[in-house]
Amino acid sequence: MELHQNGAASAAAGPSGRVVAGAAQAGASPFAEVAPVPRSIEQTGLPAQLLRELLLKHMLEATNATVRELGSRMALSGAVVGELVQLLRNEALLEVSTARIADNELAFRLSDRGRLEARDAQMKSGYVGPAPVPLDDFVRVGSRYSLLHHKVTKQRVDALFADMVLDASLKDILGVALNTHRAMFVYGPAGTGKTYTISKLVELYGDACLIPHAIAVDTTVIRLFDPHLHRPLPESGSELTILRYSEGHDRRYVACRRPVVLVGGEMTLDQLEVSFEPETRIYQAPLQLKATNGLFIIDDMGRQQVAPDAIFNRWIVPMETRKDFLVLNNGQHFEVPFEVQLIFSSNINPLDLADEAFLRRIGFKVRFDYVDGAAYDAIWRQELQKAGVEYRPEAIKYLIDKLHRKRDVPMAPCHPRDLLNAVLSRINYLDGEAELSESALNWAWDSYFVRLDQ
Q: Which of 48, 249, 302, 406 is deepest in the core (most CB within 10 A)?
């Protein structure tokens, strides 16, 4: 019986035999032109030995598997997996399993010799997952989704923040800053909406990008896709047949919304370098590489255990050259594009964190501040509407005049949400009616703000 092979027409290939952009069938997938499906080992751009060892490790986990099942595990077409299986059968590393036949397909298992080689492969690298993409393919595909190709307009910024009370001048400087594609420093008092606002900026680009499961630097595999950070498009998470693998884009890439990687006081310098886990023998990509073609936000600058100047110094070369230089555990260095919008955010004065020489390298410094009475009132209207609570102007006037101004407490955009939540929690506890009263505001105020007076 012959191996189950993919019968779809092959994509065109370049002189080297590699699949070239534009070779995929028109309309097959919005990403197929950028990352067409490889239909041979050569077209994957990976060393045959790397793929061979990866398949052996999958077989060690699966016990027995069909070409279709291996294709799903390795995110490769049936043609590529079939070619690999035939190679391993020729070397007497795989044999037909008599234990099962699935849907008229042959199932395979490791031979005794194959099991030994699989364990050797596992000792070299613990990575078992979808096949990686070569580093040069990652660079090529990533450049197609670069933020440099996008222009941010005032109309799009206004539309994005239409449901937020945000000063017009603040919206404009954010939009202009994004168009420069340079790093940005956002600062101002706590509670002024810095993190929430800048996290929404990725929506201005309004499109998706391709994120590889892993990349290969020569024969070293580095895991890149992170389910905690990357949000796949709905269709990319469905179960795919070998036929659909052939009709769509290269499934070694996941079609995702543009990433927003946000780290705060817990960040360490180690997270900005390729990490190697000795227990699992798996390499992990650094945070900025996971943020490729999206936003990388370092929040709470100055709260990290590492000194701020050490963090800032890490970005001098990437900010100026748009390139980052990484190193593997074995000492091998390699270069990757720095295709991210880097944003620093802090409620500490920037001059207390970095010297003027470094701050000059950052394109824009954007200050968020407290709001005036009119903006504060507008935010309250929004929050009350969301909660289904009646807006009472006299209650808000009391809050502004008798609490904020009398006690000299600036009005922060976060206060309406936080105070209203306290009011509603108390009402729920007392099983009362949702109403905004002066007594309810007084109780919420006293439970929210710290009082040091006797």
A: 249
